[in-house]
Amino acid sequence: MKVALVTGGAYGIGLGIVERLLTDGWNVAVAAEVPPDDAVRFADTLERAPDTSNVLPIVCDFALKPDVAGECVEEAVEHFGHIDAVVNNAGITLDVPITDLSSEDVARLMNVNLLAVLSTTRAAAVAMHDSGGSIVNISSIHATRTQSGHAVYAGTKLGILGVTRSTAVELAPRGIRVNTIAPGLIEVPRVVGADWYDPKTIARNIPQDRVGTPSDVAGTVAFLVGPDSSYITGATIPVDGGLGISLVW
Contact at 8 Å (CB) between 10 and 38? Predict the structure, then answer.
């Protein structure tokens, strides 16, 4: 049975990815930081699994030690015997003017959003050897089209594109593919609970006239870790309903 590690898989986009992979018959290691208020949502990941023996929960905190991400790969291999895919979904955001950013803010976002991706990629390259595999990095529309107050977030998400391209070239001869998904606005708990969130108003600026869902991203992940994408590497696939290419007046 195929084995995947999904970071940040306890809720939101990550939970959607975990559910899709389980439905498709994968064994899934779910790595996430789970503070008490999120424990219920993390438990939901297990409850929704067709067979809980197919799920390995790993509680970790990339913010303090991004190298823990690589250790999650090793733990998945130890538990399931091998690994076929890594989905680097874990990410945090911060809407703060650059003049108000602290060094702690910068370090936290860099650790979770970018350095952890490097850590899992390095560990996956070792674990997969020459047997091949797929690494999917979740970036953001902010990598190419962003807003004020997101300097560090946008920088880390753009950095993911560079990491993807370089490692795709390096690992291609070994059958390891590396690709990126760049979601637009997705209906996750953080977005739905925001004061500014009005899906009907927002949808007017999206060519497909709707806000995205975690399943939209999960379906693209399923494609990129599956056999139908075997000749795709180094790509960035937008999952944004056309927002990234639209010109709105």
Answer: yes
- Start-to-end C-alpha separation, the chain: 50
Q: What is the per-residue pLDDT for 189? A: 79
> Does the active-site annotation cover 197?
no
Query: What's the pLDDT score for residue 45?
Result: 61
pTM given for the model = 0.93
CA atoms within 13 A on the CB side of 5: 35
Average pLDDT over residues 111-118: 97
Backbone angles phi, psi at 139, to 5 degrees: -95, -130
Catalytic residue among 11, 153, 197, 231: 153
Assign 36 a pLDDT band (cuts: 50, 70, 90).
Answer: very low
Mean pLDDT across 29-37? 74
Cα(45)–Cα(130) distance, integer angstroms: 32
Work out the pLDDT band at 202, boundaries 50, 70, 90: confident
What's the pLDDT at 48?
62
